[in-house]
Please model this.
Amino acid sequence: MRDINKYSNNVMAQQLLLTLGLQLKDKGSLAAGREVLAEWWTQRWGAQDQPILDNGSGLSRRERITAAALARMLQWAWQSPLMPELVSSLPIAGVDGTLKTRPGRAANLGSAHLKTGSLRDVVAVAGYVHGNGSGIGGHTSKRWVLVAVINHPQAHAARAALDAALEWAQQP
Model:
């Protein structure tokens, strides 16, 4: 997962979907992998907002997930015993992976674990942001789920807005 998420390795993501189908349905096919993931989703949230998968890499115009569904999945994952492995597999803003060169204030470097995505007319970011704050007896902090998906012919012009959302979530 680390190699897939940190560096957005789409070939490995597709291979993971094929492997899920092979291991759990005895068919190394995209259809079998999609079936496994559809069953996994339905067991947790029913058919509501079920993602539409194509090849598992995210590089498809047919794949769909709502921001609300992705946020719900990230909230669920935060409660999972596997959460540390998931979070550590995500790029760290300004530190490594696909977010190594992400702009931001030096004080905020390392305060978000996010996965980005882009296609022509689409930019997206999703993951966890460490928000700073102060409370009784010293500093407290919260983890926020951040999900933003922009579908528009000028979507790439909205990258500054995504960076602003990240900065906002980090504020006290």
Q: What stands out?
A: The longest strand covers residues 122-135. Residues 1-62 form one domain.
